Amino acid sequence: MKFDKHSLRLYVVTDRRWLRGQTLEEQVEEIIKAGTSFIQLREKELEHKQFVEMAKKLKEVTDSYGIPFVINDNVEVALEVNADGIHVGQSDTDVEQVRALLGPNKIVGASARTLEQALLAQEKGADYLGVGAVFATSTKEDAKTLSRNSLKKIANGVDIPVVAIGGITENNILGLKGSNIAGVALISSILAAPNVGEATKKMANLVKEVV
Questions:
Q1: Domain 5-210: what homologous superfamily?
Q2: CA Rg value for the chain
Q3: Do residues 61 and 32 lie in contact, with contact meaning Cβ atoms separated by under 8 Å?
Q4: Residue range 30-43: average pLDDT?
Q5: Per-residue model confidence (pLDDT) at position 142
Q6: Is 138 helix (H, G, I), strand (E, B) or coil?
Q7: Which helix (H) or strand (E) holds 196?
Q8: What amino acid positions are annotated as catalytic residues?
Q9: For residue 104, what is the DSSP state?
Q10: Which one of 38, 138, 153, 211 has the fewest beta carbons within 10 angstroms of its own beta carbon?
Q11: Which helix (H) or strand (E) holds 88?
Q12: How distant, in Å, are the alpha carbons of 141, 153, 157, 171 from that of 175?
C-alpha cells in the first residue's frame, strides 16, 4: 500500500444503507475498479466482532488493489485488523493518542473546520485532514457548511493534504477549483447512485479538474 496526497484524490466513506443486494466488499471492489483511491470503513452501530469481520474482508480487497484502508474512529478495530490507519473527528479520540497507539507508520486522518483545529491536528501527528462540510449534506444533517474561502485558507495554511467533504456532487464539485485540496471524500454521490461504478468514473474525471 502506497500512501501520498494522490491517494486522497477520490476518497470514499462506506455506508451500508445503499448496498442493493451486494456485499460491502463487492461494492468496494466495484468502486475501486472504477477509480476510487482511498477507502474509509465507517460503522457506528456494529458490535466489535462484526466490525472486525467486516474490516478484515474489506482489507483483503483494498490490499489486493494497493488502496489505503482506514477505520473511522475505532482504534481497537484498526489495530486488530492491521488497517492502514484511522480517521478521527473533532469529538473522537485525540490525534496524539491515536498516533501513539498506532505508531509512526500508520495513516492518521483528522477532521477540522478551522485553521486552528487543522494546525493542531498537524502538530499532533495527522497525515491528512478532512475539511467540511463544504456543501449541505444529508449524511450529517447537523453539519454546518464551510465557505470555499475557509476551505482554501485551511488547505493553504497546513503542510499536510486536505480532503474536502460534505455534500459534494457532480453538480457542485467544480466549485472547489482553486481551493488547493488534494481530493474529495464522497458518500452518497457515489453509493446512492443507481450504478456505483458509473458514478465513480464520473466523479473521478471531475475531480481531476479540481485538483
A1: Aldolase class I (3.20.20.70)
A2: 16
A3: yes
A4: 98
A5: 59
A6: coil
A7: helix 196-210
A8: 42, 111, 140
A9: T
A10: 138
A11: strand 85-88
A12: 21, 15, 20, 9
Q: Give CA–CA dist 37/4, Å, rounded.
A: 11
pLDDT digits (tens, 9 = 90+) for 88-116: 998 888 999 999 999 999 999 999 999 99
Q: Where are the alpha helices (DSSP H) in 6-138?
A: 24-33, 48-65, 75-80, 95-102, 115-124
Cell of 169: 456532487
Q: Mean pLDDT over residues 187-205, rounded?
A: 97
| pLDDT value of position 95 | 96
**Secondary structure (3-state) at 130:** strand
The pLDDT tens digits for 111-158 are 999 999 999 999 999 999 999 999 987 665 556 889 999 999 999 999
The strand pairing partners of 13, in sequence order, are 40
pLDDT (mean) for 1-23: 95
Residue with cell 488547505: 155
Task: Quote the mean pLDDT of the chain.
Answer: 95
Of 76, 36, 77, the closest CA to residue 55 belongs to 77
d(CA 65, CA 48): 26
Q: Please report, for residues 2, 60, 134, the alpha-carbon distance to residue 5 in angstroms, rounded to integers and kept in the order given.
A: 10, 22, 19
Q: In this predicted structure, what is the pLDDT of residue 201?
A: 98
Give just the sign of the alpha carbon dihedral 201, 149, 111, 167.
Answer: negative
pLDDT at 90: 87
Identify residue 166 by its one-letter amino acid code: G
Distance of CA 22 to the CA centre of its chain: 21
Cβ contacts of 156 within 8 Å, gap of 6 or more: 180
